[in-house]
């Protein structure tokens, strides 16, 4: 820390004492913390428009009083223990106080539980957890370096808030070739959560009804709810969506939007069959409903080529396709995109300009260069193979436990990053046992829109984020729950 804002008391004399008092008061207020560096005498003299010797005299005074020490070749810094105790200080980062101010928080904002994050557990079976340690950072590095060496200056300014043009063109090519999506405008976002939020703001008025899978993705639901929408659960069956139920909802409930995860249903990982996709699309077209298709882990499909998204065959232009780089890279990259009909794009782009002018385009630029080079698709092929091996490993381990007599059952998922495991009415207990043994997993109850529907049967076991040996160790500890 070199810069330090000081308030001098003009009535204190002489000048060096004015400066010394201002610095000790900055220390008391917590502006600088124990052991933190202070500005050099030259710097401070420049800042205060005074003589360097006056500042040095101030520092000598503070050293004598026990506030400051001088360290060879480093300069002045605050001492470890202050010379007197006071309730006013130190206000350090660890010691941020909470005022009693009564905030009038919008009732549409609800508190999320601030639990320990999944990655802090020794064994992390979080369902959508990619293996960040396997990401080829070294491969991306030259492209990031290239973005900084030869930046596209015009893109770094305000304006053009759809996102980085090179990245958009690469995503458009990729979507056309790998996902058969041809007739949509791409808008980039800082992660697909931002897309869900933007869509909510643009399409939902308070009181609007959104049909969602009855077991589903809570962060999307929260985005809809903060726009004042009401959620209506669509019944599911083990192989997809109860179309009869959805039809009744659409006919009777004035639904304005349907949110789906068709390729690998979240959290059950079931792939929505073609005949149900067609029926849902026809229903939406007949009743003039938009569909959000959240295709969050498209590449990770193992048994066959992934089914083409609903957005690939969308003559009415009603499908809003949302996808992310959080799974194919890592969640911290905060890069996602939506592919929408030309008629919707301007409203979304305009709304974004209210919220955030434009997304962070520098990272997009580097990824665009990475994609253009072809290294991105090599990375996808490699990762898909690794995750398939991990799925196979988890399947064979689970089968081993089954033959040992454990009451568990599952359907091998055709893709995705998790297995939806039936543990026969032990779901919450198993989750709690896991958490107590440093194992992160989530049980069925967390995924229900209507908690009353919870049967306490399933847990979601993510397999992508851990190497097989570690996964197997975690499973052995987890399943010791059954043989206690
Ligand atoms: C259903 C679903 N959608 C989207 C995402 C990704 O969200 P984001 O792009 O905001 O990281 C996830 C990640 O867990 C998910 O499970």
Produce the secondary structure layout.
Layout: H1 15-28, H2 41-48, H3 52-65, E1 68-71, E2 75-78, E3 123-124, H4 137-149, H5 165-179, E4 185-189, H6 192-203, E5 209-213, H7 218-226, E6 230-234, E7 236-237, E8 240-241, H8 243-252, E9 255-260, H9 274-286, E10 290-294, E11 319-324, E12 336-340, H10 345-356, H11 361-373, H12 375-403, E13 418-422, H13 427-436, E14 439-440, E15 442-443, E16 458-462, H14 468-479
Parallel strand pairs: 3-14, 5-6, 5-9, 9-10, 10-11
Antiparallel strand pairs: 1-2, 4-12, 7-8, 11-12, 13-16, 15-16
Helix pairs in contact: 1-3, 2-3, 4-11, 5-11, 6-7, 6-10, 8-9, 12-14
The protein binds pyridoxal-5'-phosphate.
Run of helices and strands: HHHEEEHHEHEHEEEHEHEEEHHHEHEEEH
Kindly state the mean pLDDT as a whole number? 93
CATH homologous superfamily annotation of the largest domain: Type I PLP-dependent aspartate aminotransferase-like (Major domain)
Query: What CATH architecture label of the largest domain applies?
Result: 3-Layer(aba) Sandwich
Which percent band covers the strand fraction?
5-15%
Q: Report the major sheet.
A: 7 strands, mixed
Task: Name the strands of the widest sheet in spatial order.
Answer: 4-12-11-10-9-5-6
Would you kindly provide a written description of the structure presented here, covering whatever features stand out?
By secondary structure, the chain is α/β, with parallel strands linked by helices. The protein contains 14 helices and 16 strands. Helix 2 (41-48) packs across helix 3 (52-65) and helix 5 (165-179) crosses helix 11 (361-373). It binds pyridoxal-5'-phosphate. Residues 13-81 form the HTH gntR-type domain. Keywords: Aminotransferase, DNA-binding, Pyridoxal phosphate, Transcription, Transcription regulation, Transferase. InterPro entries: Aminotransferase_I/II_large, HTH_trans_reg/aminotransferase, PyrdxlP-dep_Trfase, PyrdxlP-dep_Trfase_major, Tscrpt_reg_HTH_GntR, WH-like_DNA-bd_sf, WH_DNA-bd_sf. In the C-terminal section; belongs to the class-I pyridoxal-phosphate-dependent aminotransferase family.
């Amino acid at each position: 820390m070199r810069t330090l804002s000081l308030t001098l008391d003009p009535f204190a004399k002489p000048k060096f004492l004015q400066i010394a008092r201002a610095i000790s008061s900055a220390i008391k207020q917590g502006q600088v913390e124990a052991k933190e560096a202070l500005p050099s005498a030259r710097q401070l003299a420049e800042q205060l428009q005074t003589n360097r010797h006056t500042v040095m005299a101030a520092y000598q005074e503070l050293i004598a009083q026990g506030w400051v020490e001088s360290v060879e070749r480093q300069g002045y810094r605050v001492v470890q223990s202050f010379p007197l105790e006071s309730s006013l200080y130190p206000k350090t980062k660890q010691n941020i106080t909470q005022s009693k101010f009564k905030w009038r928080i919008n009732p549409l904002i609800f508190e999320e539980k601030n639990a320990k994050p999944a990655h802090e557990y020794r064994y992390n079976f979080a369902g959508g957890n990619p293996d960040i340690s396997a990401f080829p950072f070294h491969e991306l590095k030259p492209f990031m370096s290239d973005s900084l060496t030869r930046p596209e200056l015009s893109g770094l300014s305000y304006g053009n808030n759809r996102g980085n043009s090179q990245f958009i063109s690469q995503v458009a090519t990729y979507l056309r070739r790998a996902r058969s999506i041809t007739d949509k405008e791409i808008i980039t976002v800082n992660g697909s959560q931002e897309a869900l939020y933007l869509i909510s703001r643009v399409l939902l008025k308070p009181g609007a009804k959104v049909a969602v899978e009855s077991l589903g993705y809570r962060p999307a639901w929260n985005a809809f709810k903060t726009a004042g929408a009401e959620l209506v659960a669509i019944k599911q069956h083990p192989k997809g969506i109860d179309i009869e139920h959805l039809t009744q909802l659409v006919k009777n409930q004035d639904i304005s939007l349907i949110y789906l995860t068709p390729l690998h249903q979240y959290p059950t990982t079931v792939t929505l069959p073609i005949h149900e996709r067609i029926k849902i699309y026809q229903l939406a077209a007949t009743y003039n409903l938009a569909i959000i298709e959240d295709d969050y882990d498209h590449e990770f499909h193992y048994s066959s080529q992934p089914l083409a998204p609903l957005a690939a065959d969308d003559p009415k232009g009603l499908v809003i396709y949302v996808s992310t780089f959080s799974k194919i890279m890592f969640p911290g990259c905060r890069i996602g995109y939506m592919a929408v009909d030309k008629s919707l794009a301007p409203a979304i782009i305009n709304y974004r300009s209210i919220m955030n002018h434009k997304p962070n385009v520098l990272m997009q630029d580097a990824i665009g260069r990475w994609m253009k080079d072809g290294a991105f698709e090599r990375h996808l092929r490699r990762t898909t193979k690794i995750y398939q091996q991990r799925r196979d490993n988890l399947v064979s381990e689970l089968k081993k436990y089954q033959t040992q007599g454990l009451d568990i059952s599952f359907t091998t998922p055709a893709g995705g990053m998790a297995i939806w495991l039936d543990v026969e009415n032990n779901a919450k207990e198993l989750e709690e046992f896991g958490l107590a043994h440093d194992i992160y997993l989530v049980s069925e109850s967390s995924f229900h829109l209507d908690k009353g529907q919870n049967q306490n049967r399933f847990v979601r076991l993510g397999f992508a984020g851990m190497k097989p040996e570690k996964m197997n160790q975690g499973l052995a500890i987890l399943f010791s729950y059954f043989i206690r």
